[in-house]
Amino acid sequence: MALQSLQIDAVIAMRARDVSRPTREHQEAADRRPLRDEMPRRPPAHTRRRNDS
């Protein structure tokens, strides 16, 4: 397998860490949003009624 010969050195590991870290703007926006558990539940789509016009 080709993946067995894959070598990850410190430089590649640090790049991967930096890429996976969210920007300050993304982190602040996520902090303002309510958590999934804090959001009200919506009924399933098949029980919701459409607007009858």
Features of the shown structure:
elongated; 2 helices
Commentary on this structure:
The radius of gyration is 22 Å and the shape is elongated. The protein is 38% helix and 0% strand. It has two helices and no strands. With 53 residues, it is mostly helical.
The share of residues in helices is: 25-40%
N-to-C SSE series?
HH
Beta-strand percentage range: under 5%
Pairing-aware structural class of the strands and helices?
Answer: mainly alpha
E-strand count: 0
Biggest sheet features:
none
Task: Give the uncertain stretches in residue-range form.
Answer: none
How large is the count of helical segments?
2
Provide mean pLDDT, rounded: 77
Distance between the termini: 62 Å
Q: Which geometry do the CA atoms define?
A: elongated
Rg over CA atoms: 22 Å
Please write out the topology.
Layout: H1 10-20, H2 24-32
Biased composition (Basic and acidic residues): 15-41
Biased composition (Basic residues): 43-53
Region (Disordered): 15-53
Give a concise summary:
The protein has 53 residues and is mainly alpha-helical.
